[in-house]
């Protein structure tokens, strides 16, 4: 990913926090010479990314090849109008994007179950009546586990872009924040809040 130095992430902690708060990724690999992508939740576990796909998904063939895969996390973005500047310029887009590269390893049955329990607990915690994997009958659970392939990406490198108008003067920077807030949609507000945290 092309990342000009001025758009580098503020810190490694920002990258980890972003992934942990936005765990739905696009996983890309090469299977039999063809690019293939899947949209799945993936969780950071130490220095690995953990996820699973359907056993019917042809992307599972990528897991047995000694090739890197790419997980893309990109949840936050907003259009920036050129009319917001104090001079003539082109419109642009502010965004956060994280690319994680790594080679996959298949999880064994115990690791697969633990990864699912972790994922379910993470999101069921927000429910008024949380579901627990232990509530599933053993036969049904085993059938579900047979239907997926669980894996981890052993992270080899991370690329991240925090493109937040850092190249603009203070007047334009503050105007962009104001206009994003005026627009009112959640993505624009999220980018405005991120910008406020970068240049207090």
Mean pLDDT figure:
93
Question: In angstroms, what separates the terminal alpha carbons?
Answer: 28 Å
Main sheet makeup: 8 strands, antiparallel
CATH superfamily: Electron Transport, Fmn-binding Protein, Chain A
Specify the CATH class: Mainly Beta
Write down the oligomeric state.
single chain
What is the CATH topology assignment?
A: Pnp Oxidase, Chain A
> How many structural domains are formed by the residues?
1
Q: What gross morphology would you assign? A: elongated
Unreliable residue stretches: none
Number of helices: 5
What percent of the residues sit in helical stretches (DSSP H or I)? 25-40%
Structure commentary:
The chain is an alpha+beta fold and 200 residues long. It has a single domain, classed as Pnp Oxidase, Chain A (Roll). Helix content is 31%, strand content 33%. The protein contains 5 helices and 8 strands, in the order αβββββββααβαα. Strands 1, 2, 3, 4, 5, 6, 7 and 8 form an 8-stranded antiparallel β-sheet that branches. The mean pLDDT is 93.
Write a concise keyword list for the protein shown above.
5 helices; 31% helix; Pnp Oxidase, Chain A; 200 residues; 33% strand; alpha+beta; eight-stranded antiparallel sheet
What layout of secondary structure does this protein have?
Elements (H helix, E strand, L loop, with lengths): L11 H10 L2 E8 L2 E8 L1 E3 L2 E7 L14 E5 L3 E4 L11 E15 L2 H16 L13 H9 L1 E16 L6 H14 L2 H13 L2
Antiparallel strand pairs: 1-2, 1-5, 3-4, 4-8, 5-7, 6-7, 7-8
Helix pairs in contact: 4-5
């Amino acid at each position: 990913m092309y990342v000009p130095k001025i758009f580098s992430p503020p810190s490694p902690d920002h990258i980890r926090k972003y992934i942990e708060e936005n765990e739905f990724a696009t996983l890309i690999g090469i299977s039999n010479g063809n690019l293939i992508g899947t949209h799945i939740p993936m969780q950071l576990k130490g220095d690995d990314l953990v996820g699973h796909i359907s056993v019917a998904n042809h992307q599972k063939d990528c897991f047995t090849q000694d090739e890197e895969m790419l997980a893309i996390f990109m949840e936050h973005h907003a259009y920036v109008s050129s009319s917001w500047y104090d001079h003539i310029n082109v419109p642009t887009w502010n965004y956060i994007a994280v690319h994680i590269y790594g080679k996959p390893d298949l999880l064994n049955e115990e690791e697969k179950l633990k990864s699912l329990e972790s994922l379910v607990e993470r999101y069921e915690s927000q429910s008024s009546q949380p579901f627990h994997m232990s509530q599933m009958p053993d036969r049904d659970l085993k059938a579900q586990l047979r239907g997926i392939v669980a894996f981890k990406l052993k992270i080899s490198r991370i690329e991240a872009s925090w493109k937040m108008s850092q190249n603009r003067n203070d007047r334009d920077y503050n105007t962009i924040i104001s206009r994003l807030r005026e627009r009112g949609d959640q993505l624009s507000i999220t980018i405005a809040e991120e910008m406020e945290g970068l240049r207090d």
